Each structure stands twice: as C-alpha cells, then as structure tokens.
Amino acid sequence: MRITRIAASLALAVLAAACAELTQQTPAPVRGHNPEATPKFAVDPYWPKPLPENWMLGQVAGIAVDKNDHIWIVHRPKSLVDDEKGAQLNPPTTKCCKAAPPVMEFDRQGNLLRSWGGTGTDQYPWPKNEHGIMVDADGNVWIGAQDDNDNYLLKFTPDGKWLMTVGTPGKTGGSNDPNLLGKPAHMIVDEAAGELYIADGYKNRRVLVADAKTGAYKRHWGAYGNKPNDDKQAPYDPKAPAPQQFSNPVHCVRLSNDNLLYVCDRANDRIQVFQKDGKFVKEFSVEPQTRQNGSAWDLVLSEDPQQRWMFVADGANGEVHTLRRSDGAVVGTIGRPGRMAGEFRWIHNIAIDSAGNLYTAEVGNGRRAQKFNRTQ
Questions:
Q1: I need a surface site. Which of 1, 28, 95, 124 has the fewest CB within 10 A?
Q2: Which tens digits make up the pLDDT trace of 321-365?
Q3: When comparing pLDDT for 96 and 25, which is higher?
C-alpha cells in the first residue's frame, strides 16, 4: 500500500509539473481588458510549437487570423539556403532540414493543424514569390504572387483546392490597367459589399477594387484618391513636400468597422485613409525620418468594437507601433531590432485575434512567426 501511495504521489507531481510547463508555454489570453488603457503585450517564446517532419520555415511573407482564431501563414520555401535543406537532398547531406509547405494553419496554442501548397497545376501556376495571405469569412484562403513574372492573386478553399485567379500570370499593364495587376502585395475582402481590395503594389501604385466572387474590375485610385501614374519618383525625403503618388510598394489594405480603408504607403512612411469609394480622408506619418525600406509595412486595428488602436509593423526599424486611431498619435512600441524572442528582423506582416493577441511575420533574415499575448 505504501508503494502504491508513493507511486500515486510521484504521478501527481509529474502531472503538476507538466501542467505548469504547459501553462508557461501557452499563456491564456487576457479577456475583458480595459479598452481605454494603452495596450501592452508579452511575447510567447513557445509559439508556434516545433514543426513536424524536420520542417523549417523560410521568409514568412504573410500572416492572418480567421474567424475561428486560427492563424495562417504563407512562407517562401525557396528562401531556405543550401545548408538548411540538406535533409531533402538525395542522398541527404545533413539531418536538417526540409522546407515546410508554404501555407500553414495553426491554433492559438501553436499547434499545426493543416499545411499545403507549393505545386501548381494546368489551371494555375504556384507563385515564384509568395507575398501576403488573407482568410475571408467563408474560410477561403487568398495568397499573393509577387515575383516580376507573377502579378496575380490566388483563392483557395481551406484545404488548398484552387478556386480563382485574379490577374493574369506573367502579364502586367501599369497602374491604370483595369484587368492586370502589378506585383500585388496584400488583399482584404469587404464581406458586406462582396468586394476585394488589393494593394497593387510592388510595380503599380494603386488600390484596386474587384468583385470578390468573379475578380471583375470595379475601380482603382492612387494616393490622395487621385489617378495614379508610373512616372519615376524621387527618393523619399522627409524634408520634401508630401509625395503625391504612392511609393513602391503599396504594402497593405485594411478595412475598419466604420467602413474606412487604411493603406500602407510603405516607403513614404505613411498610412492613408479613404472611404470605400476612394475619397481621401486623412493620413498619418509613421517614423517619418525613416529612409531605408520605409516604416509602414502592415497594420491591424484593435479587436474592440470602436477599434481605438492601430498596430503598425515597422519593418525598417524593427518595431510594432501602437497608434491611437483617432489621430495617429504613437502611444507605445513593441520590440526592437534583433533575433531574440520579442525582437524583429524585417517584420513584414501583422495579425490580431479576437482576444487582442498579436501575431507577426518576418522576412529577410528573420524568417519566423511570433505571438504577443495582450496583457493589458
């Protein structure tokens, strides 16, 4: 009997230790936090959990949260360097590693739920350079194709079945062409209107709006709601008058609950705000002294109904800025340049779940996704 009691005690101790470790690895999201308080965050260094099958991520070029609070990423398998993919050679040259499939779905605890992609068909080519991901209300997954010879978006079911291509692979026609895209960077669906907004992008200098079901062109505009052009632009100078054209790239589009469209004009260090018909409303500068690669790479709005806050991914400076949405004032900053947990090397995209936790994706030499739990 004494041996049985000792064994039971040991089992309980092991179980308690395991539960403590699990609690440490996956902190519960804070619910009911004060929406008036300036948000604060803490990095979860254990998110996501280790990948199966000796997989490794390349540059993570997009991150999104769906209606189930599942986190989706798209990464660039071809960006692994030679000594990172020795295990996928024939014969293998090292134990490590294999490139993970480009599209991956995780839960909030960091468990991998699903992965697919990387091989095209006669119906569509797989992108030479993956860029941006978005999941619409129906669970369909959109990804961007941003190589010089790409110039299109792809729409898939959640399990990777191709549904539609927007744009024509390998073709582009300039910033006023109604049918062809120019290295698109990002996309968002207005579910109520059935419209797709595209940050178009790395070659063109515009926002383009298409029918979300058919991809048919509806309208487009450039900076300040004016007609865009493709004339060569002077390098960004914070002391010069505000540029009248978007930069390359136009890097993000986001819709607010009050029907405003937020556009990341990355290299011009600003966010421009429009009505959905393209009428210019206002703009915010973000770290306007930044000259290298720009500061406005992506943004998300806070999860409260009023969306009081904007969280702006600043790739050049390796930070996430918290802005008050009403006036664009910077009230907080997350991270710093670096490669440790909670630091950033070319933070490229950002996402938010229903509890207000943030998720980030890094390209360049960062090549990872991170989670930041909302603590206030």
A1: 1
A2: 999 999 999 999 999 999 999 999 999 999 999 999 999 999 999
A3: 96
Structure-block tokens of residue 321 = 């800025």
pLDDT at position 36: 77
* Residue pair 281/274 in contact by the 8 Å Cβ criterion: yes
What's the mean pLDDT in 238-259? 97
Residue 31 has a pLDDT of: 54
Task: Return the bridge partners of 322, or none.
Answer: 311, 332
Paired tokens of 29: 């999201």
Look at residues 272, 219, 218 and name the one whose alpha carbon lies nearest to residue 244.
Answer: 272
Nearest to 97 by CA among 105, 85, 114, 108: 85
Question: Given this structure, which CATH class describes domain 39-374?
Answer: mainly beta
Instruction: Say if CB 224 and CB 280 are below 8 A apart.
Output: yes
